[in-house]
Amino acid sequence: MSQSIIHSDNKITDLKLFAIIFGVMFAYLHPAGFNGSTLQTLEQWMNMTNHMFQGTNDFLFSYGPLFWMTGGTVAQYSEFSYWISLVFMSLVASLFWFYLMRLCGYFSAWFPFVVVVFLYLYQIIIPTNFFMLTPLLLVAWYECVRKNVLNSRTVVLLAVVTGMLFYIRFVYGMTAMLSIGAYLFSKSVIDKKIKATCLFVLFSLLAYFVFGLSIFHHFHNIKDYAIVNSQLSFGNAVDMTFDNVLGGNVWLAIFVIFAVTNLFLIINYPAMVLTFNILLLVLVKLGFGRADHYPGYFVLPVSVMVMVTCFHHQKWWRGVFAITICSLIYISSVPIVAGFLPPVPFYTHENFLVSPEDRAAEKYHDYLLPNDVTQLIGAKSVDVYPYNNEFLLANKLNYRHRPLFQNFMTLTPRLDKMNQAFFESEDKPDFVLWHASTFCQGQTCNSFEGFDRKYALNEDPLTSTAVMLNYHVVKHFYVNNKPVMLLQRNTDTRFFQPPVEDNHRATFGQWITIPYSADSLVKIFPVFKLTAFARFKNTFYRGDALYVHYLMANGEEKQYRLNILNSVSGVVASPHLYSFPFHGERVRKIKFTVSSDNYFAKDFSYAWDNIPLKGINIEPSVGERLSHIEYEGEATKNLCTGVIDSAKVSTENGEPEVSIQGWLALTATGLSSPDRVFIRGTDARGEEYFITTQTVTRGDVADSFKNNALQNSGYKSWFSLPATTGDNVLSLVALKDKKLYRCDNINYHYH
C-alpha cells in the first residue's frame, strides 16, 4: 500500500500520505521539548515572544513576534495558543517530510534517504530545516517531477506564506523568498516570462506589510523590524565570532560540495542552480560565521540540499551524492562543538489553569529579588541590563525594555543609538536592574566582564553611557551569590554626544597614555579604517578579532575582545570598573591590537571624552597622581633617612616616564617604617602633586640597622611626569599615624 501511495501522482493518494505524516508529526512533537526556558542559556528573546498578546511593547528581534507558533516561548500565553502552535509545527514538519519522501519515492532514492536520515535527520523534528528547506523541496518537486511553471494562484499563496514567515523568524522569510524567488527568476529568464516572478515579489512585500499591520502595536515597527534584522545579521557576522580558524580542508570539502552539485544541476536542472547557490552561500555564512553553529546551520540543511542529486532516473548520478555526503561527514568531524541532545519522551508540559506569568516565574525561581527591592520597585517600570530579564519574569515586575534588550546583541552603532534614544526619552523605565555576567562565579567576580572575553561596558557603549548618565544607584545586593544593583531614574534627562573631532593619531600595538580624571569615566573614541578586504570579509564571511589592552597602575596588563563596529562609539579607558556600584582601578595606558595585518589600516585617529559618573569610586593605585594628601598634623622637616636606589626616566611615546624605588625610614622617635610613602613634585604651574607608591619589603634594610621595624620601609612607583618649565626635583613625603613628614633631604633631580 505504501509503495502505491509513494509512487502515485493522484491527489487523493497524496492527501492520504500527507495525513499519515501529519498524524506521526503531531504525536511525535513532545510537549516537554515544545516550550523551553533560558536557564543556563543566553536566549532571553524567548521571554518576550508573548509580547504580541501582552502590553504595548513590540518585539523586534531576529526571532519574530510569531515565533511563539513554533513553541519558542517560555510559557504559552493560553491553551488555545498552545494548540495553534502544536498544529502549526505539525503542519510545517509534515510538509517537509511529505515533499522529501515524495521526491525520493518518485526517483527510487530510498537508500540516499535512509543515509541522510540515519546520519543527520534522526531527530525527526528539526525546525530550522523545516522552515529553511521546505521551499527548496517545493522547488525541486515542481522542477524535477512536475516540470512546469507554478500557476498564478500557487505563486500568490507561496508569496503570502513567505510574507508571514518573516514574522516567525526573519531568516525563514528571507530564505523562502530567496529560494522561490531565485527559481522563478531563473524560469523567467529561460522561458522569457516574468509574470510569476513579479507576482511573487509583489505579494510577498504586500503580505509582509499586512501581517506587520496586524501584529505590531506601532506602525513604524514594520520598517524598524527589517532594520533591526539587517543590523543584527551584519553585526552578528562581524563581532559574534570565535577566534578559532577552520582548516583549509574544511573549505576544500565545502568547495567539493559546491562544484559537484552545480555540475549535476547545470546539466539536468539549470533553473535550480541559482536557488541552490544562494541557499548554500547563506548557510556557509550562518554556519561558519560563528563556528559553533555549523552542525545545525550547515551540515544538517546541506545534507538535505545535496539530495537533489538523487532526483534523477539515471542512477550513476548517485555517485555525486556519495561525494557530497563524504564531504559532510568530514566537515562534521571537525571537533568544535559537542553533538545534539537526545529527544525527550512525550508528556504534557504545562498546567494551563495557572497563568502564563506564574508559570514563567516558577521556572525562574533562582532569580527572586530581595523583598525590599521588589517593594521599592512596586508597579513602576523596570528594564534589566545587560540581559537577564529572567529577574523580571521571576518577580512579575513591570517590564519596559529598550529596543535591543541584550547588550551582547546590540551589535552595531545604529542599534546602539536606538537604545540610547530610548534611555534619553520620557518613555524610559523608572528603574534599571543591573546584574553581573551569567558567568560570574561569586561575589568577588568582576561584575562588568561579559562573555566571549569581552568587557560589558564596551559592547553597547551608547546604551551603557545613557544608563549611567540618566540613572543613579539606590541599592546593591546579591542574588544567588552574584552582584546586582538597582538604579533609579534621575529627575532630569542628560544627553550624550560622542566627540566630533578626532585630533590624535596612533598605531595598532602602541600604548596610549590616558589623561587624568579625578571622578569621571574616561573614554577613548577610536576611528578604525577598514580595508577593502575587511569589508568584503564582513559581508561574505566574518569579522576579525580586535582587542583592547589595559596597562594598570600596578603594571598588570588586562586584555579584552572588542566589538569592531561599536568601538567608534567609545571604549572605556579609565578607570577599569570591576565591582558594583561603580568601583574601579585607574588605568595608565591603553592600546589596541588586531589578529591580522590586512583588516584595518595601520594607524587610526582618536579622541578623548570624560563621562561624569555619580558615585564612582576609583581605588588609589601605584603611580596615581594626587593634588593633595589628607593628614591631621605635620612634623618637622627632614625627620627621615633613606635613599633613592634607582630612578630611570624614559621617553616612550614622546612623554617622560619615571620608574623609581628605594627605602625610607622616619627618625622622629627612633627608626620606624612609614605607613605610606609619596613622591612629591611640582608641575609647570608651580603646583605640587603627590604620586602614590607601593610598599616593598626590605629585609636588607632591617638587617643592616638590626631593626625589624624597617621590614616595610621599601617603596617603588612608576608614573608619567607632568610638563615642567625647566629642571624638576622629586622628593619624598611620608604618612605615619596620620602625620605628614616632608623628606626634602631625599630627592632626585632630572632634566
From TrEMBL:
Keyword annotations of the record: Membrane, Transmembrane, Transmembrane helix
Protein known as: Uncharacterized protein
Transmembrane segments: 12-29, 80-101, 113-142, 154-185, 197-216, 248-266, 271-288, 294-312, 319-341
Originating organism: Erwinia psidii
Residues of the signal peptide: none
Phylogenetic classification of the source organism: Bacteria, Pseudomonadati, Pseudomonadota, Gammaproteobacteria, Enterobacterales
Domain of life: Bacteria
